[in-house]
Amino acid sequence: MARDNGSAHVPTPPVRRNVEEECRGVACTRMNQERIMGTPVRRRAGGGSAAQRAAVGIVTTVLAAGVCTVPAAGATAPRVPAAFAATSATTCADTVYAGMTQAQRVGQLFMGGVAATRPSTTDLQTLHTYHVGSVMLTGRSSAGTTATRKVVDGVRAQADTVGGHKVGLLVSTDQEGGQVQVLSGPGFSVIPNALTQGSWSTATLRSRAETWAGQLKAAGLDLNLAPVADVVPASLGTRNAPIGHFYREYGHTPAVVTSHTGAFAAGFRTAGVMTTFKHFPGLGQVIGNTDTTANVVDSVTTTTSSSLQPFQSGIKADAPFVMISSAKYTKIDSRHLAAFSPAVINTLLRGKFGFKGVVISDDLGQAVAVRAYTPAQRAVQFIGAGGDMVLTVRASTVPAMVQGVQAQMAKDATFRTKVAASVHRVLAAKAAAGRLTCG
Fold first, then answer.
1. Between these two residues, 36 and 359, which has the higher pLDDT value?
2. Buried b (16+ CB within 10 A) or exposed e, 304-342
3. Following DSSP, what letter does each residue of 218-281 receive, concatenated?
4. CB 3.0 to 4.6 Å from 232: which of 46, 182, 222, 284, for a disulfide?
């Protein structure tokens, strides 16, 4: 049985699903390695026990709420609206923006991956040189909250100062639960997979999510790259490579996924940590995994599909971040991957659903789905389509991405306007999270 290392024990009830695979001979002990957003995950053939499925995963970001001043440790943070529209937050963001160089502004549009255990000197230097404004802790760490806090504090030392104002980094990770839990060890709970969480009452999930968020906050994180709002039909189940295969979905109906992603996000909000609804407009209807497969296509989802309900509900409840999928949705935009699609980001997410928060990409650094594009093209097309923050789990791709954005700015006035709007949204999020100091 998994140990909780001092934190409240969270029992893991059996997953309510018929797994189509069987365990035979050597396959019972062989661990199948796969990757989610650059992080290796391991899963026993046949699914394994609930405890085995509650293994490790990705990187998430936890955003401590407050306005323009960093909240004291342990303080209860106020609710942070998705649009980050509080006057003090936007005024703070405007003040900092006015004093920034172009390089500093562009850097705010990137989130670079660093190892959760010990970030390399090279990666940290890259983040500093290119003024990268946000960081994702990647890989796996069993060091616990205290050791992770030391890592985070070291990463934060890379932050810029603009006109006397500290422009703090947003630090995130993937802490969904199950096989997607980057941080573990003393002070961190063993979080069950989302399908198990979906079998709980929403009150139970909200309470436990608040506990998990508090652990991330204690480790110094601002943002969690969760919850997964994708609806995987029961008929597809584990054949859905990115989500169902790893039991990352909260259920098989829009109603269950909506209620439980809402409960998860509410618990995090109470603890002062921000969440990310992903992977818009949903990865529930695909077979391939965009991290490991090219040409992943959803030929089912439309702009009126019921599977969009979890995202709509999250936006109405002030979701601060929404992550965009790198699959193609032929009934929404047959020409572009969602990450590069104005129809998905501007028309559907911002227009129809009214989202005013930060639009973040799925990994554009090493995902196979985007390998046909150069790093510069990935960044330029995402921002050009309406995206705000480029996530790359490979910090080594940052220089080419930044240079591509700056080159596009030099020749395209419309693109410059989009960059300015995105930088303001990111800075407003930081101000609302207490990562800007003004006054």
1. 359
2. ebebbbbbbbbbeebbbbbbbbbbbbeebbeebbbbbbb
3. HTT--EE---B-----TTTGGGSTTTGGGT-SS-SSHHHHHHHHHHHHHHHHHHT-EEEEEEET
4. 284
Superfamily of domain 53-432: Glycoside hydrolase, family 3, N-terminal domain (3.20.20.300)
Q: Residues 180, 58: contact at Cβ < 8 Å?
A: yes
* pLDDT tens digits along 397-411: 999 999 999 999 999
Contact 179, 41 (CB under 8 A): yes
Q: What is the pLDDT of residues 75-129, one digit of tens each?
A: 333 344 444 444 566 788 888 999 999 999 999 999 999 999 999 999 999 999 9
Going from N- to C-terminal start, the domains of the chain cover 53-432
- Is the CB of residue 127 less than 8 Å from the CB of residue 398? yes
> Which pLDDT score, from 0 to 100, does residue 35 have?
53
Contacts made by residues 335-342, CB under 8 angstroms, sequence distance 24+:
336/381, 336/385, 337/369, 337/370, 338/280, 338/281, 339/364, 339/370, 339/378, 339/381, 339/382, 339/385, 339/387, 340/381, 340/382, 340/384, 340/385, 341/385, 342/384, 342/385, 342/386
